[in-house]
Amino acid sequence: MKVLLDVNIVIDLCAERYPFSRNATQVFGWCKENSIPLYLYTGSVQTLIYSLATQIHEPHRSFSESLKIAKEELNKLSGKISW
Q1: For all residues of the chain together, what is the average pLDDT?
Q2: What is the pTM of this model?
């Protein structure tokens, strides 16, 4: 079995969007426990970074800084991804 992730599930997890983050955590945990590979469509990467940056953006920092933080959060999720 393989799991293709929707961008919104990854954003839910990284941005901790309640109540959806709870379900996303369960999906990731279940896949990890059962050694099920997770995939993300390559074309979704830019959308994911931008959407996550929008979710975590705060007025006291530039949007460029929010993009950098978004990339760092995604790298925490998977060290195997090269952004």
Answers
A1: 81
A2: 0.67
73 inside domain: yes
70 lies in some domain: yes
Domains of the chain: total? 1
- Does residue 3 carry a pLDDT above 80? yes
74 pLDDT higher than 80: no
The DSSP line for the chain is --EEEPHHHHHHHHTT-TTHHHHHHHHHHHHHHTT--EEE-GGGHHHHHHHHHHHH--TTS-HHHHHHHHHHHHHHH-TT---
